[in-house]
Amino acid sequence: MHSLPGEPTAPLETRSVFQTLPDPAFRLDRRGTILDLNAAAQAELQPGGASLIGRPIQDTRLKDIAQQVPAALERIASDGATLTIEYCVDPPATQTHYEVRLSALPAQEILVLIRDITARKLAEYALRESDAQFRVISENITDAFWIRSPDMREVRYVSPAFQRIWGRPAKTLYGAPHKWVEFIVPEDREHVVRTFSALTTVARSLDVEYRIERPDGERRWVRVRGFQVRDAEDKLICHAGIVTDTTERKLAHAELDATHKQLMEASRRAGMAEIATNVLHNVGNILNSVTVSAGLARSALGTSQAQGLRRAVQMLDEHAGDLGSFLTQDDKGRMLPGYLSDISKALLQEQQEMSEELEHLTRSIDHIREVVTTQQSYAGKAGLVAPARIGDLVEDALRINGDALERDGVTVIREIGAVPRARLDRSRILQILVNLIGNAREALQEMPPESRRVTVSAEVADGGRLRICVKDEGEGISEDVRTRIFAHGFTTRKHGHGFGLHSCVQAAGEMGGSLTVRSDGPGKGATFILEVPLDPAEPKA
Ligand SMILES: Nc1ncnc2c1ncn2[C@@H]1O[C@H](COP(=O)(O)OP(=O)(O)O)[C@@H](O)[C@H]1O
Ligand SMILES: [Mg+2]
Fold first, then answer.
1. What's the whole-number mean pLDDT along residues 103-113?
2. Does domain 376-533 have CATH number 3.30.565.10?
3. Residue owning the nearest CA to atom 27 of ligand 1
4. What burial class does residue 425 get, using C-beta atoms within 10 Å of its C-beta: 0-12 exposed, 13-18 middle, 19+ buried?
5. For a designed S-S bond to 457, which of 336, 380, 415, 508 qualifies (C-beta 3.0 to 4.6 A apart)?
């Protein structure tokens, strides 16, 4: 006789072990009849029911096990091995997964051990599902991504998008963890490698943009965001990275930059053109007065008393032989001395007038030369910073506007405070001042002569900046106009372009400064305030 675990005849200890096994266990004969079972099995197979001893296994929840019995017996007979099967009951609602182990007992009996593996199974399913999701994502997103071992030496995963960006199959990277460096353009290589090595040491994440070269020689920009992946205990599990192809964006940016530069240049030219317009305007006015002076001189010459003198001299010539009797007895001859005296007086006066006209002409020509020279000393030098006195710059700006201001009867008031000689962008400041003074003059045109005043002031403002104000008592600015006044192309003037103020704010910004406007409203004048950093030319002693 043999002693079997659950058999009533088995030794007491063996039976009690069998009974107290936490996992359900029972004994079957070769036809699938339950010979014995422990409490756990009774609870699992027929909770609260009558004892299953002597009942066929087909009557229980595990009825399918009956079909496994012949196979198990065959296996056991051939190699004595245990047959393990996994088994799911009541799918799909209250799914319970069992692991059922059938092992041989003597006399063709089978010991069945059951373990509930539902929790493990569900975890497995969840994992498989998330794995499937991961695959769907990684295969479909346009960004590429990779996973590397904690020491970065091993490439664990590279998504298919790698091929699209790099033009090489993702498998090039598996087993060749350093290969990716070769695909970086040489100029960017060092920087990128340094950034990546920080990820394994000090940095928890990285964000780097660099260029790669495809097999066909095409270069593309990529942005890589890499990060460490850590578990709940903060242990480093792996590194992962997401790669975005930023080539199109880069190109668009470059184009934007180029367009921006062109716009700036156009605006700078517009600003210079505004000065040129002022210069031409001034020179044109001066030329007008030159023409008038020259015309006056010419007509004066045409009607000159010199003609009369010539006729008198001719008469004297004709009477050279009897000059005495001609002057005393001839009617014409007797009038000659008086006539000569009148002519000489008129000639003197004529000479005086002519020399005044000539002086005016010379002055006008000098004035033209001055304006042109001033303009030339600034032209094309934007960005050149040189020591200068703000007072001199103000004078130059006034000179360029000079004639027009004078003609419109504008009084200019200068309030130049104690400002040290400073390193200034002369060209840009002049451009701004000429524009502001020109605008002030235009704003004064409709005003009564006694209020045609412009005040130009310069001082060191709080915070050590240089503040230059151009204030007029002209037509003023409404709130509506004020908000649009610096916009490119905004003008209310019949012959305006609306480029002036726009180019001025731009120039102010380029100097690290600002240009603002204040006005109490229509009819109340306006003040334009230019502020630029003050960088004294000589350090204070
Ligand atoms: N000092 C000022 N007082 C009143 N309005 C002004 C003054 N300066 C500028 N403006 C307004 O701002 C507009 C834009 O000036 P600006 O950019 O120089 O262009 P433009 O002189 O060609 O009109 C002017 O048309 C005018 O309406
Ligand atoms: Mg203007």
1. 81
2. yes
3. 492
4. buried
5. 415
